[in-house]
Amino acid sequence: MTTRKQLLLLIGVLSLTGSSETLIADTPFPHNLRLRELKSIKGPSAVVSTVRYADSTSRFAAGFFNNQVHVWSDNNESAIELQGHDNWVTTLAWSPHSNLLASAGLDKKILIWSLPTDKPILELAGHDQWIRALAVSSSGSLLASGGDDNLVKIWNLPHHFESPLGTIQSQPDQPPTDKPRLTLQGHRDWVWALAFSPDTDLLASGSLDGTVRLWHATDGRASHTLQVPSLEKSNPDRNSAVRSLAFGPYGKVIAAGCSDRTIRLWNAPSGKPLASLLGHQDEVLGIAFHPNGRFIASSSADKTIRLWDILTGELLQILTAHNQWVWGVDFSRDGSHLVSAGADETVRIWTWIQP
Predict the structure, then answer these.
(1) I need a surface site. Which of 178, 213, 301, 339 has the fewest CB within 10 A?
(2) pLDDT at 85
(3) Residue range 247-256: average pLDDT?
């Protein structure tokens, strides 16, 4: 028998491919493919708090509770060690199509690195509380930060940087500076998650106040606010805290990992709720879209990673290699690998196999 929750989920999923506007691609994908652990990397003896793949490369970075950032290649066991923080690193963000990496954490500062240089090229200070989230715009010119001061700050990134193509110059409308370009106010509690649309300046911010706010990062205009009512029976009148955010690769769908153990999906242009994915047994701490836009990986305090088909609402796979909280996940840009960050002090790389 179909339960009311399953029916609501089905209605939401069907609206993802409505005739008026296709929000995701109905991408053929062999459902007999499964993720298998390719390798486990033991870094420093510290919780792995965040992990991010670089754009268009096989490199990924991880932040640790020993104040360090490590950068690896899929094919190289040795890491570049970045040292400069004075407290736990909680968040990372790569600039698209470049070697710029931003890191931040409990020391309330943002460091900008230009790989392979192991010294920061810029330090940004503007938050007076711990920093929980970073995101870089698709143009690479804007950096967003959020933290326990309930604020979102927008910064101009350096416009000269080294890339595999040589020296690149972007065209920001304001020059880089160590002061924030904008401060966005509206959240009533800590800002734990940020994500930029892949094709516009639209920025999503998620907070413990149970809302996702959408902003135009160039000028700070607010777009709309998405409410996250809790689905927990013990807190029916409260909103659920937002722990993680991601835009789909087409910019039409926003996904949020929430403290009520759900993943919420919205139509980004309209703010219309689309679906809720149920299955985790604890808070959803990390979320990532596969590049085809149809599949989501989520990580949780329940020590699992789950793979979902958002077109059907089907839970495809549960990965249980970590034995502590899984703080984050990210897909490589070609979709061939998934990387995960564990409180068990390991970074794990997953790849697709045919059983």
Answers:
(1) 178
(2) 98
(3) 96
Q: How confident is the model at residue 318 (pLDDT cuts 50, 70, 90)?
A: very high
Enter the DSSP assignment of 158. P
Quick one: which H or E segment has residue 12?
A: helix 4-14
Query: 4-16+33-353: which CATH architecture?
Result: 7 Propeller (2.130)
Cα 314–Cα 55–Cα 344 angle in degrees, nearest 5 = 60
Concatenated DSSP letters for 180-244? Answer: -SEEE---SS-EEEEEE-SSSSEEEEEETTSEEEEEETTTTEEEEEEE-B---TT-TTSBPPEEE
Residue 10: strand, helix, or coil:
helix
Average pLDDT over residues 312-321: 95
The reported pLDDT for the residue numbered 14 is: 40
Which secondary structure element, helix H or strand E, spans residue 273, and what is its range?
strand 273-278
CA 139 to chain centre: 17
Tokens of 242: 């937002």
Backbone angles phi, psi at 234, to 5 degrees: -75, -20
Predicted confidence (pLDDT) at residue 19 exceeds the cutoff of 60:
no
Q: What pLDDT does 73 receive?
A: 81
**165 contacts: CB under 8 Å, gap ≥ 6:** none
Count of beta carbons in the 10 Å neighbourhood of residue 166:
6
Could you identify the residue written with the tokens 């080294």? Answer: 162
| pLDDT above 60 for 8 | no
Element (H, E) at 27: none
Name residue 37's amino acid: E
Cα–Cα distance, 81 to 204 (Å, whole number) = 30
